[in-house]
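Journal club prep, shared notes

We agreed each person brings one worked example of a sequence with its structure written out as tokens. Mine is Flagellar hook-associated protein 3 FlgL. I'm keeping it raw so we can talk through how to read the token line rather than staring at a rendered picture. Sequence first:
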Amino acid sequence: MRVTGMMQNTQLLKNMRYLNTNLTDGQNKLASGQKIHRPGDSPVGIGYQMRYDTELSRNEEYVQNASMGTGMLRTMDSLMQQANDVLKRARTLAQQASTGTTPDDARKAIAAEMEQLKEQLVMIGNSTYNGRYLFNGQKTDQPPYTAATAASDTTDTGVYTLNVSPAVSVPVSITGEMIFGTAGSGDNVFKVMDDILDGLQTNNIDKIAAGMKGIDDSSDRISTQWAEIGARMNRFELMENRLADDKVNIKEQRAEVADVDMADAIIQLKQQENVLQAALSTGARIMQVSLIDFIR
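Then the structure, token by token:
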């Protein structure tokens, strides 16, 4: 077959386009750090990359849930400490007032402070984290208690949970009644406080003394739930560590499929540049051949 000058020129231009395409692709890989820019670059690889990206997205969601759960439980842990301190002070005051030697004006002062302690307990019961009420079950948008009717207020029995993996959902909330006692019953801490206040106002020493046992029972109940909060915090922290390890593994798997080996990419790009320069040099000599060259 006779090779004409037109054929040489056409083939040269075709080769130049091919080399320029490879050079541009190498530059894009170095600039982005990614092997795959379109599905055609690696039909199999793009499938793995999309799967790993989805897993990373889910992992991030679970990490955020675990972080929020840890934050909520840490807040609850602090609130249990506050409630415990309030009850300690309430018991001290009740013990002072239960003696027959306490004068009326001192008993009135104790009653005023006891009222403030009760209001502090109500505030603790209505505490929030990021706008979510902590002690009203799944009704996180509604306060569980009011100052006037706290002793008879019922809380939602649902449990607010957070997903930390496709198959694991960890409970976060603890209902107010589990901490502060059943609404309307004698073990309700707000009812106990109301009874002590009534005893202080009516000088009923027996009622005040009975209230001290109610405070002790409430303290024991709070301590039990406090331990539960600590156990849940430990579980969320373990899940956060596990999710962090999973994230590292997924990123490594994704990198094997989609990330560029920079050292190798630089070598490949340099080789492409050398080939292009050689092709340009050869092409320049071919393109210079004309009829005048043959006449000579």
